[in-house]
Automatic annotation (TrEMBL):
<protein>
    <recommendedName>
        <fullName>Lipoprotein</fullName>
    </recommendedName>
</protein>
<feature type="region of interest" description="Disordered">
    <location>
        <begin position="248"/>
        <end position="269"/>
    </location>
</feature>
<feature type="signal peptide">
    <location>
        <begin position="1"/>
        <end position="17"/>
    </location>
</feature>
<keyword id="KW-0732">Signal</keyword>
Amino acid sequence: MKHLKLKMSALAVLALAGCVENPVISDARADYRDMSRPELAVDMRVEGDNTGAAREFPVNGNAKHYRAYVQATPNERYRLRVTNNSGERIGVVIAVDGRNIISGKQSNLRNDERMYILEPYASGTYEGWRSGQNQTNRFFFTQASNAYATAWGDTSAMGVIAMAAYPEKPRLPPPPVMHGNRMEAAPAAAPMMRPAPGTGYGESTWSPSHSVDFEPVGNPMEKLFLKYEWRETLCEKRVLPECRAVQPRPGNNRFWPENGGYAPPPPRH
């Protein structure tokens, strides 16, 4: 380990020495690079009531820790369609703006949070915040100031739809139930049915559900993060292909200057 550190230090000195005589200038700003969406064992898509599947732009191709931008449409009601492409029974913890969509509590995507259960090769559609056993309140894209998470004073994960997928721990056969001199297997549990943007707490809709027994493993098999932004923001970030030829507007972030990367003269110089 010490040898590695010494070697790296020597390289750093050589690089600095070279910069004195022949400086090399690089442009730190780069456009978004198009890439293929990986095949996911448990997939999640954002679907608008009127606009259909939201435009999605992958940031990486890691099927175990997938990240992408998603285009949001103001005031659009939307749903999350989750598909289990695996042959295992899966529990999914889903958080919108950092809040668990079943309990409404702040989420860390842990295996002890409330989750939806998907049978092998099954799909589930989740339209809103679960406000009762048979009721949800619709998701809709709104200003961050009007978001459900903001109402709880939590803006720590605003604009992100996140999911962690947990396989089920192997289950032992249920113990036999004695009925007189006969032995019968216990019935199996039934599967469960069913400025910046934020997600609001919309109108109530009928959404029946019931509880099942499910013990997840300790670590998720996959995590997925979708960062939704208004079209204008995706343009400024050079994510949308049709906007990459347009020069970005000056921003107000002190760590992201838009002055071409060079030091301007001081004020009143």
